Amino acid sequence: MQQLSVDSETTAADLSLTGLAAWWTTFLVAFFFASYVFAAWITHLRHNVPSLVFGWEVHIPFLAWTIVPYWSTDLLYVCSPFLFNSRAELATHCKRLLAVQVSSVVIFLLFPLRFTFGRPHAAGLLGWMFLLRTGVDTQFNQAPSLHIGFAVVLWQAYSRHLEGNARWLMRSWIVLMSLATLTTFRHHFIDLPTGLWAGLFCAAMFPDGCAPLAGAPLPGSSKWFGIEALYGVGAILFSAAAYRVGNVAWLILWPASALAFVVYRRWQSTNLKQSNFAGGSQ
Fold first, then answer.
1. Which segment, 53-67, 129-143, 167-181, 245-259, is predicted with the most confidence on average?
2. What residues contact residue 83 under an 8 Å CB cut-off, 6+ apart?
3. Predicted pLDDT at 277
4. Cβ-count burial 196-215 (b if 16+ within 10 Å, e if not)
5. How far apart are CA 224 and CA 265, in angstroms?
6. What is the mean pLDDT of the chain?
7. Angle CA(182)–CA(183)–CA(187) in degrees, nearest 5?
8. How many Cα atoms sit within 13 Å of 39 on the Cβ side?
9. How far apart are CA 170 and CA 176, in angstroms?
């Protein structure tokens, strides 16, 4: 009887977690379509939306078959919340996906870019797959690439829950579906590193567990203000340089965001230390 009771509780917990994963999936998909279409519509109303294209990109081939790995991002995205065995892991993963969506859509609206190449026609089943995406994949909503941002989060999720050959096969497939953003003529190159940045930054914002950083001083100390001020000034200077120079210099936002994140993580860690110290003294 005791074993039956334990099994029943385990089954109920699994069903509860599955339901929560289904809720997260429904919410994330609905939010994606609503925010993505809204950003594309707003950008469509603007005049003279710029583009950022390197000259060598004209040599990128159009490979119709790569629409298959490109499409598979949607499948991996929808299935990913059901990988997790705990509410904490599930929440962390879904917060990362949501953060990628929110941050990318904000950038779409503030710094719109458009895709400039003509998209060749594909026939048969592949052509039908391209046609189904015409309502979502417009010439706008380019940098950062949401596909790449999602790929970073999905890489972490599936790598954590797969082993051996299955893990490496999945990683190889995620690389392929990331490159497909170029060979399906959905994105220019600049969208890929910015998408990688968005994914990595959002994953770092919601780490797996949040232990204090080693050596992080308590808030309010002169050491804390000195280090954080140094990194903060660096982030501001890099951001100003990117804004002033423009064009490819926008990649300077990568080190700028890295410095800003160091400030955030040290602030987070010192607050955790302060909370732990206060809790231990009671």
1. 167-181
2. 93, 157, 158, 160, 161
3. 45
4. bbbbbbbbebbeeeeebeee
5. 12
6. 81
7. 25
8. 29
9. 10
Q: Span 207-214, mean pLDDT?
A: 59
Residues 6+ apart with CB under 8 A from 69: 173, 176, 177, 180
One-letter amino acid at 252 equals I
Closest CA to 144 of 105, 177, 201: 105
Q: What are phi and psi of 180, to 5 degrees?
A: -65, -20
What integer is the mean pLDDT of 89-97? Answer: 94
Query: What per-residue confidence (pLDDT) applies to 167?
Result: 93
Gyration radius of the chain's alpha carbons: 22
Q: How confident is the model at residue 248 (pLDDT cuts 50, 70, 90)?
A: low
The band of 5, judged by pLDDT with boundaries at 50, 70 and 90, is very low
Q: What's the CA gap between 14 and 86, in Å, rounded? A: 9
Per DSSP, 138 falls in state: -
Give the residue from 106, 116, 129 showing the smallest Cα distance to 186: 116
Helix (H, G, I), strand (E, B) or coil at 25: helix
Residue type for position 174: I
Where does the pLDDT of residue 130 fall: very low under 50, low under 70, confident under 90, or very high at 90 and above? confident
Among residues 20, 35, 131, the alpha carbon closest in space to that of 82 is found at 20
